[in-house]
Design brief:
Blueprint: H1 4-15, H2 19-26, E1 56-60, E2 68-75, H3 82-97, E3 101-107, H4 110-117, E4 120-122, E5 130-132, E6 135-137, H5 148-153, H6 155-164, H7 171-181, H8 191-197, H9 202-212, H10 220-244, H11 251-259, H12 263-273, H13 279-283
Parallel strand pairs: 2-3, 3-6
Antiparallel strand pairs: 1-2, 4-5
Length: about 290
């Protein structure tokens, strides 16, 4: 049962809404007197399931016994609705885990990074009740690591440097340093680079480095690139054999051969090209 003192301490503001102006003046904060007041429902329970997910959430324990939560968000563009969601995440995490939360936002372009780094003050300008201050990692503050020696010291940081500087003029040198350093590293460290570069032009630079500099490296990406290389080589072998044997090869047949990326099918075509009298004989019933 709610105590009467508890009831009185808030109920009086329902009865006399203008009281807040007097209280704020006493507290030294200038709020203008209200011109109208609307009493809103006090139940803040969500009436429908509301799904909210942070990109990554970690609990970090420290030697001085001061654990904290780290929420990591990746942002590719400005989103005016995000600061409100981030404030919700942090409040919820603090309530649920009773540990101080920290938010880190990772960006690939300077404009988005600078937007994300701006403190968001929630509340009236004269007395913000909450201030959202995420840490931001982006091209404006992450180191440009172009030295293999430096990359070896902290491969994870070098990987993040490559991702955040994906559109930097120095990205080629950054990727070369990381690829050279990877010769002494666990295989899994290279995969985030391929994912982080996405469809940006730097992604092709990385694929080339994986093909040449990391020929020892085994991963889904490297195996895919090598399979593409094998397929391309077989296609060129087929064309070479057919041309040397004087077999007429229409443009659509040539395009079909060079456009095929299935190494097994190309192997069948390669065998047929040794005796085929026409392009149709190469493809058979396929």
């Amino acid at each position: 049962m709610v105590a009467s003192s508890h009831e009185a301490m808030h109920r009086i503001f329902q009865e006399y809404p203008g009281l807040f102006s007097g209280v704020s003046e006493v507290l030294g904060v200038d709020f203008a007197p209200p011109t109208s007041v609307t009493v809103l429902p006090t139940d803040l329970t969500e009436t429908q399931p509301l799904e909210r997910r942070v990109d990554t959430l970690l609990r970090l324990d420290t030697e001085d016994d001061a654990p904290y939560l780290l929420a990591v968000e990746a942002k590719g563009k400005k989103d005016p609705a995000k600061p409100g969601s981030w404030a919700y995440y942090l409040s919820y995490l603090y309530t649920k885990y009773r540990l101080p939360p920290v938010m880190l936002v990772v960006c690939q372009d300077r404009s988005t990074a600078e937007w994300a780094a701006r403190p968001v003050r929630i509340g009236p300008p004269q007395w913000p009740v909450l201030t959202l201050r995420p840490l931001v990692a982006g091209p404006h503050n992450m180191p440009v690591i172009t030295s293999t020696v430096e990359a070896r010291k902290d491969l994870a940081l070098a990987t993040l440097s490559a991702i955040t500087h994906a559109v930097d003029p120095d990205i080629g040198d950054i990727l070369k340093a990381v690829s050279a350093a990877l010769r002494d590293a666990p295989e899994t460290i290279a995969e985030p680079i391929a994912q982080g570069l996405g469809k940006l032009p730097a992604a092709q630079l990385w694929r080339n480095l994986v093909t040449v500099d990391l020929s020892f490296y085994k991963s889904p990406l490297s195996e895919e690139i090598r399979a593409e290389g094998r397929a391309e080589g077989r296609a060129q072998d087929i064309l070479f054999i057919l041309e040397r044997r004087g077999v007429n090869l229409p443009d659509d047949a040539r395009a079909r051969i060079t456009g095929c990326d299935d190494a097994e099918i190309l192997l069948h075509w390669l065998g047929r090209s040794l005796t085929a009298a026409s392009a149709e004989d190469v493809f058979g019933d396929e």
